[in-house]
Amino acid sequence: LATSLTEEERSSELLYPVVSRIRHVSAQVAAAVIVEAVDEGLARDERIINMVQNDCEELKTRQGEKWEKLVKFVQENMWDP
């Protein structure tokens, strides 16, 4: 979460991203948790395991097409009030 702050947010001494970015940042945090859970053998959802298991090291960089695909998957499955 701390690494998700923009330069502007850091210079304003914010602890969390601005509200308008919370959903996007939350999806990134959730994607990172998914990668770690799969890597540590704690994930149970076969759909997620199959999506992530062979790419954990690449996904840990939090960059690239596979990372964006995982974040998009999370966003599509997030509750939207």
TrEMBL record:
Domain of life: Eukaryota
InterPro entries per record: NAD(P)-bd_dom_sf (IPR036291)
Name of the protein this chain belongs to: 5202_t:CDS:1
Organism: Funneliformis mosseae
